[in-house]
Every structure is written in C-alpha cells, then in structure tokens.
Amino acid sequence: MPLNKFKKSLINGFALASLLVAFYIGQSSQKETDEFSKSQVFRERQIDKVCKKNGNIAAYSQNHLIGYVSIGNSQGYGGPMKVLLLSDTIGNTMDIELIQNSETHAYIEKLKNKRYFEQYPNKKVNDKYLIRSDISVVSGATVSSNAIALASREAAWNIAKNKFSLPLPDVGIRWEIGKYELIVVLIFILALIATQLKYKKLRYIVLFSSCLVIGFLLNASISLSHIGRLCLAYIPDIRHHFVWWILVFGNLLAIAVMGKNVYCNSICPFHAGQIFLNKISGVNFKIHPGLSKHLIQTPKYLLWLSLILILISKNPTISSYEPFAMFFSLEGMGIQWYILPAALIGSLFISDFFCHYFCPVGASFRFLIEKRNKLKHLIRKHHE
Questions:
Q1: How is domain 40-162 classified at the architecture level of CATH?
Q2: What is the CA angle 67-69-71, rounded to 5?
Q3: pLDDT tens digits along 86-138
Q4: Minimal CA–CA distance to 164: which of 114, 93, 248?
Q5: Of the candidates 149, 169, 159, 166, which has an alpha carbon nearest to the alpha carbon of residue 59?
Q6: How do the domains of the chain map onto residue ranges?
C-alpha cells in the first residue's frame, strides 16, 4: 500500500474510532436527574415536596397542596425537548417551564421576548394546545413554538386524564403544510432539474428564490445541527417539520440515487448570498494552489471536531458555528458574530469563500458522495 494511502486510511480510521468513542460516552452518560429540584417554577411557588400516587404527581408547599405536576416531551428544531407543567387543584394550568432543550439560544430568547410562555397560565388542562388556534406562534421561531405547545399538551393531558378524568378534544393528525412548504417542494424539484441538466440560468433562479423563501422567510437552511440530529437519531415528525424532511432527506436521496449534492449546488440560501456579494465586487482572487490544497481540508476537521462535541453532549446545536441563521435573522451568539462578517468579507474577494474553506454541511455531503461512489465502484467491479 502506498505511503500516502496508508496515512489517509490511518487518519480516517482514527476519525471514525474517535466518533464512535464520543457516541459511546454520550450515550453511557445518561443519568436520571431530579427534574423538579432545579425548577424555577418550584422555587417561585415555594414547592418543597412532591408525592407520586396513582400516576399523579402532587406538589406541596409547607404541606399545603398547590397542584399537580407533569412532564411532556416533543422534538424541537435542535432535538428532544421537555416541558414541566404545573396545574392547580381544579384543572387550570398555573405555569409551564422548559426544563430541557437543544434549541439555538436565540430562538428561546425570542420566545421569551415575545412573551410566548405567558399565554399558558389559566388554560384548561384539556385545551387543545394548538399553535395558530389557542396558542399564538412566534414568527421566526415557529418550530420551537410548536414543539413547546406539543410538549405542554402531553403534560396537561396527562393531568386531565389521570387526575380529573376530563374529556380530551380531538385534534386530529395535523400536518403543518402551508404555502411556504409547497414552495420549498417546488424549489427542490427545480433544483433537481437544474443540477441534473446543468442548466445554469435555472440554477441561479432557484438559488435566489431559495435565498428569499428558505433563507429570509423561513430561516431553514441546513446546518450542522441537522447533521447532528441525524447522528443522534433525533428525527423530527414529518407532520411538523416538513421543510426539514424535504431538504435533508430529499438531498440524501439525491446523493444516493444521482450522486449529486443538490442542496449545496442549487438550493443553499447562504451560497446564493455569497454569489451575489462576489458579483457585486467583481473580484475573484485565486489562492495559491499549494495553500488552497490544505485550506480546502479545513471543513473536514471542523466537521469532525463539531461532531465529537455533539455526540458527547447529545446536543445537536452545541457546536453549530455556521453564520446561516444569523445572516438571515441577524440573531446569533458567540463566535457567529465573528464568523459572519469574516465570511461575507471573504466572499467579496474569493468566490464561495465559506463553502470552500469552512462549511461543515458541504463537507458532510461530499463525504457521503465519496462513499456512495466507492460503493458503486465496488458493486460494478464485483459484477464484472
């Protein structure tokens, strides 16, 4: 085996082994925690004792019955979500608290700033808890709004059914599919055509349509958190995350069948933004081939390091550094405030600057295409 090929195999083996170890550490560190002891709701209400009886959890303050507690679960944008709900003794919601989530911090802050959580107190425990019905949605944090509503419903209905024997409303099987979801389907179909036929004009039309709809209106770009969710098997319900499924699984299917990365080529809203900036400047510096050869490997190492952190923490958003969401919403945190201007300035002078040298999403899809092509080659060789 040639030395370079041996070194590459060694590095790939180390990367795979370290990811497996990180996954094992993350999964084995699951410890049962007292979900009530650190609750802000409990502190504010001075709840000092809970008693479990007949499937109900009663909450007391100085031996005085305050109400009943339940925990509800759902899938948010970043992964699993838990909501604690406290009801009074006659079946009204007193308060809710988000006690576990993997959402981007900016989304939760937006919910708090828009007073989203204040609409839950005084609701009946057997209400519908439906967004756009009896729960108002916060624009720009629709997925998080819906996930909290679903978790709150599960918690409230547990109390309604087990403690008060109340009838529960029929909310049916709701699909969150509206005009924007249908537009995303159309964008994806046109992107498939543009990529397969190499139709440049259609590609540009699709890219800038995606920039408007998927970027500015929905802020639903594929990010490292999507890759993290797949690795952790945090698969969201298609009924409430239709755009997520179209973009992620649609692109994975295109890679498997066509060997083409349709998303990065013809859909990515941030890619469209970089093209626009580079066209404005009219400048396209060429990095020295020797330096470019090393820089182009950077996304792989960033992807590997990010996945290590995600797998250990079991939090898909913990190491998300891409500036996509911040670019379209102007809301971000930490290192994103530095990466976004660097990426935009770089795009003025170097075509697809972030895509080539920093994007972990592109790196993950290129990795899958490489493995897919190798598998296809092996199958052909086997049948020859």
A1: Alpha-Beta Complex (3.90)
A2: 165
A3: 999 999 999 999 999 988 887 898 899 999 999 999 999 999 999 989 999 99
A4: 93
A5: 159
A6: 40-162, 179-383
Integer Cα distance of 89 and 69 in angstroms: 11
Q: What tens digit of pLDDT does each residue of 314-344 get?
A: 999 888 889 998 899 877 777 888 999 999 9
Give me the phi and psi of 190, to 5 degrees please. -65, -35
Tell me the C-alpha distance between 263 and 252, whole Å.
9
Residue given tokens 């978790």 in the structure block: 151
Q: Rounded CA gap, 347 and 325, in Å?
A: 17
pTM > 0.85: yes
The neighbour count for residue 175, using CB atoms within 10 Å, is 12
d(CA 204, CA 206): 5
- Per-residue model confidence as pLDDT tens digits over 129-167: 999 899 999 987 888 999 999 999 999 999 999 999 999
Q: What would the 3-class secondary structure string for the chain be?
A: CCHHHHHHHHHHHHHHHHHHHHHHHHHHCCCCCCCCCCCHHHHHCCCCEEEEECCEEEEEECCEEEEEEEEEEEECCCCEEEEEEEECCCCEEEEEEEEECCCCHHHHHHHHHCCHHHHCCCCECCCCCCECCCECCCCCCHHHHHHHHHHHHHHHHHHHHHCCCCCCCCCCCCCCCCHHHHHHHHHHHHHHHHHHHCCHHHHHHHHHHHHHHHHHHCCCCCCHHHHHHHHCCCCCCCCCCHHHHHHHHHHHHHHHHHCCCHHHHHCCHHHHHHHHHHHHHCCCCCCCHHHHHHHCCHHHHHHHHHHHHHHHHCCCCCCCCCCHHHHHHCCCCCCHHHHHHHHHHHHHHCCCHHHHHCCHHHHHHHHHHHHHHHHHHHHHHHHC
Going from the C-alpha of 39 to that of each of 53, 90, 97, the distances in angstroms are 21, 22, 8
